[in-house]
Amino acid sequence: MTESTAFTVACAQTDPVIGDIDANIAMTESAIREAAGLGASLVVLPECASGGWAFTDIDESRRAAQRVDDGPTIEAWSSLAAELGVWVCGGFGEIDGDHVFNSAALIGPEGVASVYRKVHLWNTENDAFTLGDRGFGVVDTPLGRIGMMICYDAWFPESVRSLALQGADLVLAPSDWVPNPRQQPGPSLAQIMTMSAAHSNQVYVAASSRVGVERGQPFIGSSVIVDHEGWLLAGPAPATEAIITAVIDPIGSRTDRADNPFNRPLGDRRPEAYTSSK
Amino acid sequence: MTESTAFTVACAQTDPVIGDIDANIAMTESAIREAAGLGASLVVLPECASGGWAFTDIDESRRAAQRVDDGPTIEAWSSLAAELGVWVCGGFGEIDGDHVFNSAALIGPEGVASVYRKVHLWNTENDAFTLGDRGFGVVDTPLGRIGMMICYDAWFPESVRSLALQGADLVLAPSDWVPNPRQQPGPSLAQIMTMSAAHSNQVYVAASSRVGVERGQPFIGSSVIVDHEGWLLAGPAPATEAIITAVIDPIGSRTDRADNPFNRPLGDRRPEAYTSSK
């Protein structure tokens, strides 16, 4: 009998206080403990869960940012991961020299496993953050091969494709989804982008979005957990500090995904036929 | 005062008879005339509307296929386009030497403007057709810059991206959409792929899918017309021989699309950050 590779993933929506690292550590600690209590082995927090998002410029975003090596939020999440035996993925402002990146960390019981720097900055984010300089990466963990993206990255199909081409089983997407000015009844565009990315790459996606209003910008929550065929397992969450969970099996699904004649999105690609701007 | 560049596009669902070119010419003629009567300047027909789809092998598909130069379906659609002053886009089996492609033609009042050969063959299609050998192309018409894809191509985000990078305003997608074995309540995956492609490329998409059952394979209809922000303008159509229409403005929307800070899917791309299998 094979050991099960399935586990519970949670998306925990929070409403960060801009600039208040301590308040946000307390808020995310509470969310992580609650999610662990629900059986989660992996807890995904929103984008910029450590310090808020709507900064005017880099000077201001830097005051709410931290280094990976000794940042207080990273240390708090690492301690919780070790104590509870869980993995945590969350967004934080990352200082590296003169730069402030809109980053996400993946932290396991033994510490930081991976840091991702948001590649696609949206709208006024360009004033407050530096463009991610490391592309997309996948890290091999006991839960599966995990990649990260952040919010607006999901609007670019190249993001999840880049991770899938590197063998990702699961994509984590800390997000601060905002209302679409022309939202129709039915799924949000964020959900549509997430489902299509999961389906067209046969990867699980867990997208955790914040709630609340920051400097006039409302956020929609609406977190979703989508399976490797693009279907909803949990969510969309309401626009409150909710936690959604689902059981997923990134490692166990590898054979099914590789052998699926109905949809073979990597095997049937034809790169020689594509127009590239590279 | 500027002349309006808006026009009505129609997606006309048909239920082709496999192998019966004459019956399908009559069926599509009726659909084209009806759509023109509804005010359509452009009528999109399903994939393989000329001769059916579920062929066993290339020998069989060849018997229902035709050359662009002198094929009876292409001639019939061209005559109708000239007579009615409309544009027609429809799928047909295309013979070129030893090859049979799953192709789509875009035909204007003055004749064939463009032929597209399906790049991504799905499942058993690989037994019955040759892989498209010309990639994706865009043609400049009085209605806007138009590209084509066929059905499963929409599962590959590279398809519409390739067309958008070539300046497409409008993508036409003759399709034979099939039921998904795990369909949830809400939009079909086909619709989700179409909406996400439109949104992430700021292009209109008109996807016309067939109905009926062919050799045991049912089709879902569910045609949609989606605007350049990814929202539904018409559809999903029922699984009957229905026609849906919408007014679209591919040329007139160019300025809005270029100046949109909310979503700048081409301008905010970062090709240097993407993993490529090329």
Automatic annotation (TrEMBL), chains A, B:
Specify the domain of life of the species encoding this protein: Bacteria
What SUPFAM superfamilies does its record include? Carbon-nitrogen hydrolase
Keywords recorded for this protein, A-Z: Hydrolase
Against Pfam families, the record matches this protein to:
CN_hydrolase (PF00795)
This chain's source organism reads: Agromyces atrinae
Give the taxonomic lineage as stored in the record. Bacteria, Bacillati, Actinomycetota, Actinomycetes, Micrococcales
Chain segments carrying region Disordered: 254-278
Task: Describe the location of the CN hydrolase domain by residue ranges.
Answer: 7-250
Record's protein name: Hydratase
